[in-house]
TrEMBL record:
Gene Ontology annotations for the cellular component aspect, listed alphabetically: cytoplasm; histone deacetylase complex
Name assigned to this protein: Histone deacetylase domain-containing protein
Cofactor(s) the protein requires to work: Zn(2+)
Organism listed in the record: Aegilops tauschii subsp. strangulata (Goatgrass)
InterPro entries recorded: HDACs (IPR000286), His_deacetylse_dom (IPR023801), His_deacetylse_dom_sf (IPR037138), Ureohydrolase_dom_sf (IPR023696)
Record field: transmembrane: none
């Protein structure tokens, strides 16, 4: 927050209060058993070792305050989506932890609840949104979001990621295109290790733009993991800060122009 303040970002933004997520809203995508699990997370290293050591590969870690943070994170995204859908703002940005895009019916990959999926289902259920686009540019595949909306045609999931990072146990494929009525509403764009601004902007212009134009989303969620950024050694890719900014502007400004013009053409400027 100090850096955001020093850079003048806080002066240019409005900050909104939010509540922890309602259990009822979360339960639209999760089973009660998962909330029981979240409510009873271990708070000490000893308790954690006893509980999680029996579950190989799940990669979740908790301490005192984790449960509260999980409900707060989901609540922040819900609040942001309410404000945008109700047109108080054109865009909202939630700076939250823990993240969510690996979580589905179970918690995994540092993710307990899928914040974006919960908020997306919320706007579909409570704001009569018929077409929501979820763009996920984290370097890892958003397996949780894919799984939760794999059979939905109301939510189009579009994920760019490094194709050789099978984490947490995700085997993404371009052939994963949805199921049932959701056939064609799941798009994976696996990219080579080291992908950069040029690669991402090419995908935006040549694929995401036309897809969004055809889908005509009423709202867009961005799962904005920045681990494809240059200098991030685990991600091993080279998207610059300016590149991320351009991608987000293309997605969001394109949508805003589309909504205002209702022209049927999602022009992606910049
Ligand atoms: Zn990631």
């Amino acid at each position: 927050m100090n850096t955001l303040n020093q850079d003048g970002v806080l002066d240019r933004t409005e900050r909104e209060p939010f509540d922890s997520a309602d259990r009822e809203i979360i339960l639209a995508v999760n089973d009660p058993e998962q909330l029981d699990y979240v409510d009873a997370l271990p708070m000490t290293d000893e308790e954690q070792d006893a509980k999680f050591s029996q579950v190989a590969g799940v990669s979740v870690f908790s301490s005192e305050g984790t449960t509260e943070a999980i409900y707060s994170a989901a609540g922040a995204v819900i609040r942001g989506s309410d404000l945008v859908v109700e047109e108080y703002y054109e865009t909202a940005f939630a700076i939250i932890r823990p993240p969510g895009h690996h979580a589905h019916k179970i918690s995994e990959g540092f993710c307990f609840l899928n914040n974006v999926a919960i908020a997306t289902q919320h706007v579909v259920d409570h704001h009569h949104i018929e077409r929501a686009l979820v763009v996920d540019f984290d370097v890892h595949h958003g397996n949780g979001t894919q799984e939760l909306f794999y059979g939905s045609k109301q939510v189009l999931f579009f994920s760019t990621h490094r194709r050789d990072l099978s984490y947490p146990a995700s085997k993404s494929s371009v052939n994963d295109i949805g199921d049932g009525v959701g056939l064609g509403y799941n798009i994976n764009v696996p990219l080579k290790k080291g992908f950069n601004d040029v690669d991402m902007l090419y995908v935006c212009d040549q694929l995401l733009g036309p897809v969004a134009t055809a889908f005509k989303p009423e709202v867009v969620f961005v799962s904005a993991g920045y681990d494809a950024g240059e200098g991030e050694t685990i991600g091993g890719c080279n998207v610059s800060a300016k590149g991320f900014g351009t991608i987000v502007r293309k997605v969001l400004i394109g949508l805003i122009l589309y909504c205002k013009c209702c022209s049927g053409v999602l022009d992606l400027p910049l």
